[in-house]
Amino acid sequence: MLLQEERVLVVEYGLRMLNGGLVKGSGGNISLCNKDKTLLAITPTGIPYDSMEPSDIVILDLDGNQVDGDKAPSSEVAFHLGLVNLRPDIISVVHTHSLYATTVACLGWELPAVHYLIGHAGSSVPLTPYATFGSKELSENILATIGIGNATLLANHGLVAVGETLNEAFSAAEMVEYVSQIYLQARAVGEPVILSQQAMDEVLDKFQTYGQQKSGE
Ligand SMILES: [Zn+2]
């Protein structure tokens, strides 16, 4: 089987995504690219994470042709491929429907820097305009919105996070969910204080310089 290592990681993080409450059932999807081999490992459509096996993972070339695996790829394959082809630093894509991030997206809001841990995604998280799931239009909207950051909210849908590793993309998805919860709670009782661009620049700089401390302390 092609991309054995990547298959195992995608299955492992699928389970973490389910157990961490970031998705329900078979919702959401994960991909991990091997840029040297120009291949992408992506979750199949319709298989629950708790029964997914490495052999279920679908392998595509970067033009979207299926080269290994007998399952159909995730219905969101278009934006996974679009993102790994968009920026050389994007190796992995994690898409969730986590509750708080999706709530912010359903309000039509971007997520501002209400907590420094948003730095896993950027100095704020933009909002991608709504389009039908699985559509080319949704993929185009995401590619036009994500910019240089590691995440974007999807209006009336959920969240997409990216990273140089699967762990980085997953952490961005987790942190955007955490900061979304903080933001909604803060807005429920008052007017949250938003960190300045300068403060966030320092956070982003520190995250880059001290990669091992990126989980935040
Ligand atoms: Zn979705």
Question: If you had to describe this structure to a student in words, what would you say it looks like?
Answer:
The protein has helices spanning 4-19, 77-86, 99-106, 136-145, 166-189, 197-209, and strands spanning 29-34, 39-42, 58-61, 66-68, 92-96, 127-128, 151-154, 158-163. Strand 6, helix 4 and strand 7 (151-154) form a beta-alpha-beta unit. The model has no long low-confidence stretch (mean pLDDT 95). The chain has one domain: L-fuculose-1-phosphate Aldolase (3-Layer(aba) Sandwich), CATH 3.40.225. Helix 2 (77-86) packs parallel to helix 4 (136-145). Strands 4-3-2-1-5-8-7-6 form an eight-stranded mixed β-sheet, sandwiched between helices. The chain has six helices and eight strands. It is globular, with a radius of gyration of 17 Å. It is an alpha+beta fold and 217 residues long. Helix content is 37%, strand content 16%. The chain binds zinc ion.
Element layout with pairings:
Blueprint lengths: L3 H16 L9 E6 L4 E4 L15 E4 L4 E3 L8 H10 L5 E5 L2 H8 L20 E2 L7 H10 L5 E4 L3 E6 L2 H24 L7 H13 L8
Parallel strand pairs: 6-7
Antiparallel strand pairs: 1-2, 1-5, 2-3, 3-4, 5-8, 7-8
Major sheet: arrangement of strands: 4-3-2-1-5-8-7-6
N- to C-terminal distance? 40 Å
Low-confidence stretches: none
What is the N-to-C order of secondary-structure elements (H for helix, E for strand)? HEEEEHEHEHEEHH
Query: From the 3D coordinates, which CATH architecture would you assign?
Result: 3-Layer(aba) Sandwich
CATH class: Alpha Beta
Rg (C-alpha, Å)? 17 Å
Q: Could you tell me the strand content as a percent range?
A: 15-25%
Beta-strand segment tally: 8
Shape: globular
State the CATH topology: L-fuculose-1-phosphate Aldolase
Q: CATH superfamily, please?
A: Class II aldolase/adducin N-terminal domain
Coarse structural class = alpha+beta
Helical amount among residues, as a percent range? 25-40%
What small molecules are bound in this structure?
A: zinc ion
Q: Regarding quaternary structure, how should these chains be classified?
A: single chain
